[in-house]
Q: What sequence folds into this?
């Protein structure tokens, strides 16, 4: 079965750039989505189809996908961006999520 | 307001059954593909399955761990999505989210998420 691998955690200082990676075999040949989940809340879509931002998502969120790695980049990270982030892709008609990355802003 | 509201969660014994519901509002439910995603306590997101709109065939797909035990259905007249869970196992303990599925082939994504409902499987 297809697997997506994310680093369990990442720390960044306020105002710096956070890059969260998601690795999978030939992931660049698929579309990746990213979801943000804050404690006690439902996930929120932040990036879809590799690099598109839904309405209402700040411009500091961007995405890329090439080779075996998709990357979620948060420019000028703010304290409110502290959350768990999950990548997701499809393997035929099956959705696959990465294990999640806990982003700490300190 | 566009929203999804899950209900039906609770405590059930191993081997038991439970049916979750997800009431949709604020969008044309009959045109939407829908999915269930779950999250075990302290763990990551896990896709459960999805159902296409009747226009697109109304077919279902399931994750391997639930295939043959869980059934996703929809009642477009009630704007409601269902998840029938049978032969429940302790590892099915999780909060369950319903979501809308948008996009094009192989580029689908989970757009709108509900508030979740907790299912606890324990003796």
A:
């Amino acid at each position: 079965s297809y697997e997506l691998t994310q680093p369990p955690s990442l720390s960044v200082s306020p105002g710096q750039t956070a890059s969260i990676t998601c690795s999978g075999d030939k992931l660049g040949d698929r579309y990746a989505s990213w979801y943000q989940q804050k404690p006690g809340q439902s996930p929120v879509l932040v990036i879809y189809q590799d690099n598109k931002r839904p309405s209402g998502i700040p411009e500091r969120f961007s995405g890329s996908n090439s080779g075996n790695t998709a990357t979620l980049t948060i420019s000028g990270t703010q304290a409110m961006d502290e959350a768990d982030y999950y990548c997701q892709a499809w393997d035929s008609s099956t959705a696959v999520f990465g294990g999640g990355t806990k982003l700490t802003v300190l | 307001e566009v929203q999804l509201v899950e209900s039906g969660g609770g405590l059930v014994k191993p081997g038991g059954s439970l049916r979750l519901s997800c009431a949709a509002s604020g969008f044309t439910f009959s045109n939407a593909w829908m999915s269930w995603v779950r999250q075990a306590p302290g763990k990551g997101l896990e896709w459960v399955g999805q159902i296409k709109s009747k226009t697109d065939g109304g077919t279902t797909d399931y994750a391997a761990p639930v295939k043959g035990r869980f059934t996703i259905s929809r009642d477009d007249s009630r704007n409601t999505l269902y998840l029938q869970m049978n032969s429940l196992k302790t590892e099915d303990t999780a909060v369950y989210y319903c979501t809308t599925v948008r996009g094009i082939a192989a580029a689908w994504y989970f757009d709108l998420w509900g508030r979740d409902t907790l299912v606890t499987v324990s003796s």
